[in-house]
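Treating backbone geometry as a discrete language has practical consequences that deserve illustration. Part of our work consisted of pairing the sequence of a single chain with a tokenised description of its backbone. We regard such an encoding as a compact summary of how the chain folds. The amino acid sequence and the backbone structure tokens for this protein are reproduced below.
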Amino acid sequence: MTPTDDAIVFRGLHKTFGRGNERVKVLDGVDLSVQRGQFVTVIGPSGCGKTTLLRLAAGLVEPDAGSVSLFGASVADATAEKRIGFVPQAPALLPWRTVLDNVLLPLQVNRKVPSSKAAPDAVELLTALGLGDALQRRPRELSGGMQQRVAIARAFVFDPPVLLMDEPFAAVDELTRESLRHSLLTIWQASGKTVLFVTHSVTEAVALSDVVVVMSANTHGIQRVIPIDLPRPRDDLVETTPEFLALERELRLELRKGSK
């Protein structure tokens, strides 16, 4: 495989759902490249194709036309090599397993990971996410925010170079959401992973990202790509700076433009 600076490449993507007169066009000729180590957020109105783009990268759906590659390889090869981690909107934890056992699950089904490395890494991740005292709890004993932290740890623990995150904080309150994004930012900044993240939150997009991709439901494609030129590492105080507020305003105006 030839080395490339691009971790994820979408080329000429077309995707339609339904049949006959009920066919709905979702993506129409989408081109996008995500560089290694970037945190790229996709934002836009409902129905613009954000989640479809993510699912195409995960290999959960197939394009009608065009291609998706990860590190120059096919999605199927990247999946087989365990190069993709996926965090869905709902945590999808197994209720009979403890917090630690839920996080260890991907390692237990991935024979390429040494068993001696698995548990210490999982405990370290959970501790970094504020769950060091909850290792033996069951999901029913956790708040929604705590469950989502477990889902994030599960995605990070087998060390995939690419993380795909589909509105992972959508179901929690705003204060919990703020805490979760700062936890994610902290562990991501230390990881060097490539992240493709979907959200409806303007603040979240600016706080987390190197690049924000604005999608349009009118054109079924990318409306604009906005670089987020804020220094890293970032903490929660970045959201109070004039530079942050200016980028928020620019992004909000862009979203309004696409909704007309």
